[in-house]
């Protein structure tokens, strides 16, 4: 009887830990996409020009992408629970700064701070979840962790639309306060203790290359979209960023104690998981931001209607995510991933057709298929990536995977900007985009989804089963 009670208490503790960690990731994902439906009102309120508007979206994503791998290392060094708490407190403070920002560039600066603190807590939270559950339960745990946060990623436009319609755009950021209080309170009440990762020397040159290379590259890509490829403002940053990141990768492969152990990606399955998450995140964030803008500026939806228009994406995620977790626990990562990526590719094709035809019903069908695909693919990819390494390396593996996700998000937004400005009628001082511009932007998603399917097919095999993964 005592053993049964002890086991039950341990199970409750694990799931409460999951609630705390899910709250943090949900905030991060929500703030990636909630801005899409609120952006027209933020732009008007803070008198933003086209450049400031673009950086209010990508500043957060670039900071998150640049720092998230270092955030994983920080968690390994100071403890994952400490890193989680520091990141959570800083994220909420930056959210308050967003809500109170007096100017457009002050808002952008607060968004950058949000991204830095989000990158500190995100790798720690994923590693805490993996450390808290036995191998045979990780599929369901990560399905809940990634699936609920995916709901917030996709549901950002719906939540933002309701807040903008009935309150104000500032409430998109005040919302983070109660979520953070709940998560932090649970970490204190549970007295969380998890294993530290292997602390190693920090190579500051590598840190400089990474933290400068990603933003510089994204600046260049964004300028290509806004100004064209024939200007120095676009070409030079793109080349400089690409060179810095190339040097960074080469340096990591040569150092005995690299900043980020990219040699982990020699595991084909881990590489495949990272690429799949990179590509799906690029679609998710681009779709949530520019899909909301399309519904409002082209189809004349109100903010709330634009938010409700995202429901066909949300509902299938809610339905299938737990089936994906159970399927992962029974069959490993390959089957749910390939099912999900097939649905995602079909959904991207239908969505692009709906945008081209200016047909919301067609777009909604595509969103349903794409949401089903994400529900099946993303949590198994995340769980499989962390299950392929030892417990001491999970913080770093999480940092690598989350870097790929966030670089995917910001690259996806930049790719859509480039595609949407390919035709001369698009650019204007007000930043208005034509229906054809949105159609070109959504066509990018077809290429990304098909590439993810190819990566999943050739790279991800059931070499590591959840029941036999290192614990």
CATH class annotation of the largest domain: Mainly Alpha
Which structural class best describes the helix and strand composition? mainly alpha
CATH superfamily of the largest domain: MFS general substrate transporter like domains
- Outline the biggest β-sheet: none
Defining traits:
single chain, 471 residues, mainly alpha, Growth Hormone, Chain: A, 2 domains, 16 helices, 80% helix, disordered N terminus
Describe what this molecule looks like in 3D.
With 471 residues, the protein is mostly helical. It has two domains: 2-189 and 259-464, Up-down Bundle (Growth Hormone, Chain: A), CATH 1.20.1250.20; 203-258. The protein is 80% helix and 0% strand. It contains 16 helices and no strands. It has helices spanning 2-46, 50-78, 80-100, 104-132, 138-166, 171-174, 176-189, 204-227, 232-254, 268-297, 303-308, 311-331, 334-356, 360-387, 394-420, 435-459. α2 runs parallel beside α4. The radius of gyration is 21 Å and the shape is globular. Mean pLDDT is 83; it is low at 1-9, 426-430 and 463-471.
How would you concisely characterize the structure shown here?
This protein is an all-alpha fold. The chain has helices at residues 2-46, 50-78, 80-100, 104-132, 138-166, 171-174, 176-189, 204-227, 232-254, 268-297, 303-308, 311-331, 334-356, 360-387, 394-420, 435-459. Helix content is 80%, strand content 0%.
């Amino acid at each position: 009887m005592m053993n049964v009670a002890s086991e039950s208490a341990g199970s409750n503790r694990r799931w409460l830990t999951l609630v705390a960690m899910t709250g943090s990731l949900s905030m991060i994902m929500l703030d990636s996409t909630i801005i899409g439906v609120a952006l027209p009102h933020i732009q008007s309120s803070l008198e933003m020009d086209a450049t400031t508007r673009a950086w209010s979206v990508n500043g957060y994503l670039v900071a998150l992408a640049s720092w998230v791998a270092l955030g994983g290392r920080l968690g390994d060094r100071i403890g994952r629970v400490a890193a989680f708490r520091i990141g959570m407190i800083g994220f909420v403070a930056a959210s308050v700064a967003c809500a109170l920002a007096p100017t457009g560039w002050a808002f952008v600066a607060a968004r950058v701070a949000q991204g830095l603190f989000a990158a500190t807590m995100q790798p720690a939270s994923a590693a805490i979840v993996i450390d808290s559950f036995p191998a045979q339960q990780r599929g369901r745990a990560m399905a809940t962790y990634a699936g609920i946060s995916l709901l917030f990623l996709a549901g950002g436009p719906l939540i933002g639309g309701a807040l903008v319609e009935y309150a104000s755009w500032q409430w998109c950021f005040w919302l983070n306060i109660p979520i953070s209080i709940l998560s932090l309170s649970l970490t204190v009440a549970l007295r969380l203790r998890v294993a530290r990762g292997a602390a190693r020397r920090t190579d500051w040159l590598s840190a400089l290359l990474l933290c400068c290379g990603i933003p510089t590259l994204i600046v260049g890509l964004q300028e290509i979209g806004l100004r064209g490829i024939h200007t120095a403002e676009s070409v030079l940053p793109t080349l400089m960023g690409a060179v810095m990141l190339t040097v960074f990768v080469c340096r990591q492969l040569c150092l005995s104690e690299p900043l980020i152990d990219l040699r982990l990606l020699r595991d084909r399955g881990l590489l495949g998981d990272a690429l799949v998450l990179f590509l799906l995140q690029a679609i998710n964030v681009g779709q949530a931001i520019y899909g909301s803008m399309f519904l409002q500026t082209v189809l004349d939806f109100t903010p709330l209607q634009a938010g409700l228009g995202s429901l066909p994406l949300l509902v299938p995620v809610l339905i299938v995510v737990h089936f994906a977790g159970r399927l992962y626990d029974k069959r490993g990562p390959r089957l749910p991933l390939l099912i999900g990526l097939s649905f995602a590719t079909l959904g991207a094709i239908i969505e692009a057709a709906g945008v081209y035809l200016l047909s919301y019903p067609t777009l909604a069908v595509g969103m349903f298929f794409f949401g089903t695909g994400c529900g099946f693919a993303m949590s198994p990819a995340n769980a499989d990536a962390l299950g392929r390494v030892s417990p001491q390396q999970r913080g770093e593996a999480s940092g690598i995977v989350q870097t790929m996700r966030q670089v995917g998000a910001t690259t996806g937004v930049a790719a859509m900007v480039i595609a949407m400005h390919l035709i001369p009628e698009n650019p204007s001082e007000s930043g208005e985009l034509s229906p054809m511009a949105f159609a070109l932007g959504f066509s990018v998603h077809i290429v990304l989804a098909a590439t993810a399917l190819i990566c999943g097919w050739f790279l991800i095999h059931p070499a590591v089963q959840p029941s036999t993964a290192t614990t």
